[in-house]
Design goal:
Layout lengths: L3 E2 L2 H21 L5 E7 L3 H17 L2 E7 L5 H12 L6 E4 L9 H7 L11 H9 L7 H11 L9 E5 L6 H9 L8 E5 L6 H5 L4 E4 L17 E4 L3 E4 L7 E4 L4 H4 L5 E2 L7 H19 L6
Parallel strand pairs: 1-11, 2-3, 2-4, 5-6, 5-7, 7-8, 8-11
Antiparallel strand pairs: 9-10
Helix pairs in contact: 1-10, 2-10, 6-7, 6-10
């Protein structure tokens, strides 16, 4: 019996609809939520990501401003722009699209953003608040994963969650989200990574298995506990001469072999991916509420 396929597109649309309602309520209260996206250089993938975020803002009722800087810009040029946005009361969210050119230090740039406007959830202050359970802006991709699970009717509290990967973008914040109290968390959490010995002994114990390592089709059926919920965060290009584009997109999970074993699974594409932009919309409306001292809906 094959796993239930978790429809990330459908759930992401639900969240975007909620963000749209929140944006409308903010406007009614006299606050126009505003997200500024800063793009340095002309990387095609980054331009595409920024375009999808701007489009989502338009559909949600969030004002979006795109600032484009040349790849030759200095780090100080970018810092000056961030300082200006930090001090602009009409701006509620600041997102600097990564990666940045070699002459810029991503950590320093991230730390320059006002934590109250850090809709990526990467500022050390927000990372610290998340780790001790204080309400804050949290990274979009890991924040969307409990939504995918619980909105699919799967309980999380008390479950053993195994996260493969320890990046600052997904793995580490995912651990901190899952371990907190609440219906959409309250898990026993194990983190596995490149230093883990006998990885399979851990993954086979997982009620919820989250793969975020960037290795195509790394998780195979023999690594998965029957009936487990498998969340595939990876998106990788692999050569495929039979495809029109010469490649196909696959996740970190070998979907074909794992789907018959798992109880529920996210596809790639169409699983975790759509949730990232949806959660960005939620973060932007949340930042606007918090900045203006308005109660949560």
């Amino acid at each position: 019996m094959s796993a239930t396929v978790i429809d990330g597109k459908k759930i992401a649309q639900e969240i975007r609809n909620e963000a749209k309602a929140e944006a409308a309520a903010l406007v009614e209260a006299g606050v126009q939520p505003c997200l500024v996206v800063v793009l340095v250089g002309a990387d095609p993938a980054s331009k595409a990501y920024v375009g999808s975020k701007v489009k989502a803002c338009e559909e949600t009722g969030i004002k979006s401003i795109k600032i484009e800087m040349p790849a030759t810009a200095s780090e100080q040029d970018l810092m000056t722009e961030i300082d200006r946005l930090n001090s602009d009361a009409s701006v509620h969210g600041i997102l600097v699209q990564l990666p940045l050119p070699m002459q810029m230090d991503e950590d320093r740039v991230t730390e320059r953003i006002d934590p109250a406007k850090d809709v990526d959830g990467f500022h050390p202050e927000n990372v610290g608040k998340l780790s001790i359970g204080i309400d804050c802006l949290t990274p979009c991709t890991p924040s969307g994963i409990p939504e995918l699970i619980t909105r699919s009717g799967i309980a999380m509290s008390g479950k053993h969650a195994v996260v493969i990967g320890r990046s600052n973008i997904v793995g580490k914040p995912m651990m901190n989200i899952l371990v907190q109290k609440g219906e959409k968390a309250n898990c026993t959490v194990t983190c596995c990574h490149s230093g883990t010995q006998d990885l399979k002994q851990f993954t086979q114990q997982a009620d919820i298995l989250i793969a975020a390592i960037g290795v195509p089709e790394f998780v195979t059926a023999d690594m998965v506990k029957p009936g487990a919920t498998v969340i595939d965060v990876g998106i990788n290009r692999v050569d495929d001469t039979s495809a029109a584009r010469g490649y196909r997109l696959v996740g970190d999970v070998d979907y074909a072999s794992v789907a018959p074993v798992a109880g529920a699974i996210t596809p790639v594409p169409g699983g975790v991916g759509p949730m990232t932009v949806a959660m960005l919309m939620k973060n932007t409306t949340k930042a606007a509420r918090m900045i203006h001292g308005l109660a949560s809906r």
